[in-house]
Every structure is written in structure tokens, then in C-alpha cells.
């Protein structure tokens, strides 16, 4: 009986998904999945969420919407710091600006990304370079430059978290053999998910857990063009075992989970958010 009682008395389980007082940085946070995640982080208790993307106006509008949330913690705020993550000098400036507000960062969501659709035979070099620079190089250096702040607030029992946004196109095969082919994007997302696995081993002993999320189709500004080109939302929903595409809560909840105590022993993993679509494709 005593053993059974010990087994069921889980430590503060009702708050296991809470992020009270945590400080987060979200790159690519002014729209789409990044903005969804920022909303989830604030509603889960984060005290500060720094929103960064290339366009200052978009960052300001995102922060205004986030700061109007009715159920965030008292005093919690979203803070706009525009920066072009494709440039290392801009990442360094971003870190310096964040330091003006805080002496630690608990959560880093490296979400900034770009895509380009073009046939393989005519895929332009500048487009390939742009996608690789933003989707891989910028993620590496964003994590590198923020590591001192991530270490500052971490401990063995309360590690900091890094999450990178990949894609199912980086696990299976992306769009091929048509005018909207995305070879550079698919390669970049495979690379960034493998980067997360490498950094999990590099940074885990330093109190930083690193994981990846691989979304399937979510209707966002970046994805909507491709969704329309390959049949539209209804066609994709019918082909999905879950019967629908991703919604904002799916991504936000996954980010909150990976940043919470609930995922305190998850490191170097990739969480696939596609409703089972990759498995359905493999079964054909």
C-alpha cells in the first residue's frame, strides 16, 4: 500500500505544463506558427516573450495582439525586437537587445524560415542560398549566440529549452517533379532537424534540451500557395488520416509541451505534427 501511494503521488502534476515566469525568444514570431507559439507560451505563464522577424511593423503588430490577450499572467508582455536572422551581425544585435531586458533566456524557438518553389532543372542559385541561409545557417548561429543566456537560467532539474521548426518535408520527401518543387526547402529542413539532434548531445550537459518539431500542412501565409497548388485544403484533408490540416492550437500546444516540465526528459527528439499523413503515404 505504501509503495502504491508513493507511485501515485506525482510532484505538482496539475502544473506540469505551466511555464510561469519563463522568458522566451521566438524568431519568425510575427506571423504563422511562430505567432501561434508565442501566444501559447504567454497563455501558459511565460513572463516575457521576445518577438523577432525582419519587418519591424509586423513585430509591433504581433506584440500588440499578444499583449491584448486576456488570460496571460499579470505583467507578462511580448516585446518587439526586429532583426534579420539571415545575418550573423543581426543575430548578435538581437542578443544584445534582449540582454537589455533580461539576464537569462529559458526558451528559444528558432522558427524563422523561408521556402521557394521551382522546378529542379531551373532552381535558381540565389533562391537555394536564401533558403539554406535562413533555414539552417541562421538557426545554428541563433542558438550559438543565445547559448550563454540559455545557460544562465538553467539547471539540471530545470533545463532551458531550444526548439527548432523543421518540416515533414525534412523527414520524408517534399514536393517534387513540378513547377512548385521545393528541393532547397526539403534539404534545409532535414539539415535543421539533424542539427537539433547534434545539439542535444552538445548542449544537454550544459543544461539545455534541444528538440525539433516537424509540422505537416498548416494553413499559413508561407504554406497557402503550395497548398493551393497541390489540390487545395479539402483535397489534403481527405488524404489525411486525421481528416484535417493543422490548426494553431496544435503547434502552440506542442511548443508548450516541449518547454514544460512534462518534457523534462525529452532531448534530441522530433515531434511530428501531421495527423498521421506520413504514415498513410508510407502504407500505399
Automatic annotation (TrEMBL):
Pfam families: adh_short_C2 (PF13561)
Keywords from the named record: NADP, Oxidoreductase
UniProt superkingdom: Eukaryota
InterPro entries membership: NAD(P)-bd_dom_sf, SDR_fam, Sec_Metab_Biosynth_SDR
Family as reported in the entry's similarity comment: Belongs to the short-chain dehydrogenases/reductases (SDR) family.
Protein name from the UniProt record: Gluconate 5-dehydrogenase
Source organism of this protein record: Phyllosticta citribraziliensis
